[in-house]
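Hello,

Following up on my earlier ticket. Below are the two sequence lines again, exactly as submitted.
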Amino acid sequence: MTRTNWLCCAVLLSLCADGLALGAEPLPSWRDSPTKTALLKYVADVTTEGGAKYIPAAERVAVFDNDGTLWPENPMPFQLAFALDSLKRDLPENPAWRDDPQVQAALRGDFATLLGDHHRGLLHVIALTHFGVTTAEFDGRVGHWLETAQHPRWQRRYDQCVYQPMLEVLAHLRQHGFKTYIVSGGGADFMRVWSERVYGIPPEQVIGSYGKVTFELRDGQPVLVKQADQIFVDDKEGKPAAIHQFIGRRPVMCFGNSDGDKAMLEYTTIANPRPAFGLIVHHTDGEREYAYDRRPRSSGKLSEALDQAAQRGWVVADMKRDWERVFPERSAAQTAP
Amino acid sequence: MTRTNWLCCAVLLSLCADGLALGAEPLPSWRDSPTKTALLKYVADVTTEGGAKYIPAAERVAVFDNDGTLWPENPMPFQLAFALDSLKRDLPENPAWRDDPQVQAALRGDFATLLGDHHRGLLHVIALTHFGVTTAEFDGRVGHWLETAQHPRWQRRYDQCVYQPMLEVLAHLRQHGFKTYIVSGGGADFMRVWSERVYGIPPEQVIGSYGKVTFELRDGQPVLVKQADQIFVDDKEGKPAAIHQFIGRRPVMCFGNSDGDKAMLEYTTIANPRPAFGLIVHHTDGEREYAYDRRPRSSGKLSEALDQAAQRGWVVADMKRDWERVFPERSAAQTAP
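Thanks for your patience. The regenerated structure is below:
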């Protein structure tokens, strides 16, 4: 490619990008607030060529927690709803499960038992419903569940219960050359089935908890079988470790909602040679969503990270105050039957 | 962005891409041969919109082994040379190593001892030289080693001993919308230090062997410390498993050189719903590089994969016959002192 060609490309792309920015007001579901101003200003600052805070495109890495940050985690994390529905569906074919006290606890919704003894029951239920199948079979199960299950409160598909304001943040960042990643305690295989369609995040940018998979030729066809060992839990200090392992560079933006995200907020924002941005989604809206933060033993507990936010310069998004809308409009196609 | 803007971008980008293709003959270091023809034809077929074999850009994933495929693995894998040089350098500060029989074996070049008992000595030497440091310290060590060490035969920096024909394949694929990944038994942390500069492959597209890292705030600064446990070896059946874990979709092109790449060649090419392409770099040139394939107990052993190549449709690149040049020209800046 000649130098003139490169220049031609660069100039035209920059014109196109301007067209993009002029086309629509960014973040329409965010009310005018210090939160929205801080977000837009950061993105403008680090993408203005020649500016003091400019960050080259290759280093524009933004990481997002999923449960509680991009979609709700109530009344339980959605993947747990999938596991419980799977248990019920597969029970007739697995009569031995009827004598299994952890399965019994799950079926009667006894979360105290499931979460006791270091989440032993929960992990057991996940193991029964997530492992021993090929990755293709698992993808099919998750896809079928999404098509048929309904969130009990909003009576819509789980993958329609995503935060519209955060979809707009994802789009705004990508329009400005950021690479958007999920870094979640949820299972990577579970999220990858729908992350591209719902969030525009391709499978290679989904980092989550995972277990070992084994490769084999089965009847001459390559398959990967999900195993219930060597489980990596992508939470707390595991998140910066996974970011290193999968991305291999420090993010400059981090979005979370709980103490499980504190370590990756620290990794992103403390002493980063690049200007960095951290944001906490604070669940303050009991009417439109749920209001919670410091309640103990919940996957969305937010206490230490909230206490440190001011000192660390993390922006706290107040869902009730800052969000004009919580969920996307129901489209005709999306409306639950 | 308006529809007109999008069209403007698309048309202009396509003009630029044409300029690119017209600017230079692709793969100049490959001699005209069935190998080169097959490679170029596959890329043309799957990137011709409207063609029967067209593959959308998002699915154009190409995976490359590193040792023996993108650079040599003789007289020993380059990362082992790094480990041995590190041992020698750090010996004065670690007097206890002098009584360590595995260190002694390494220092006298006794590979039979290092490789015996399931590579126990080798893993021990790697552990001594790769772990217990922060990722930033490790990056610095690798960078310093590359600046100072010389390949004993070619008397040039190790990162200048890369295969020019394969650099051209990487560039040709990227120009045609492929995402190029390394999937190597080498350490991910070792390769990421130089993969972007040398191959144009960014850290997030480098998959390799890895160990656990732990996150901590040390004197208030976030650091990741490399640990010698939970080691994942990215070789043989581990390669398709790692591809699933890191990329989450099947590649359509796979390049390897040894039986360690057989499983990922199978995963890429057998019963893939997309047209797929597998290539084996066959080391046939003892004059310009090294000639070997079926020798036992080498990291580059090529036997089963070579036997299956015809049946599986894998293209075998004969280095002696197919490559006009093996290494890049020495530039003034690259010339060793």
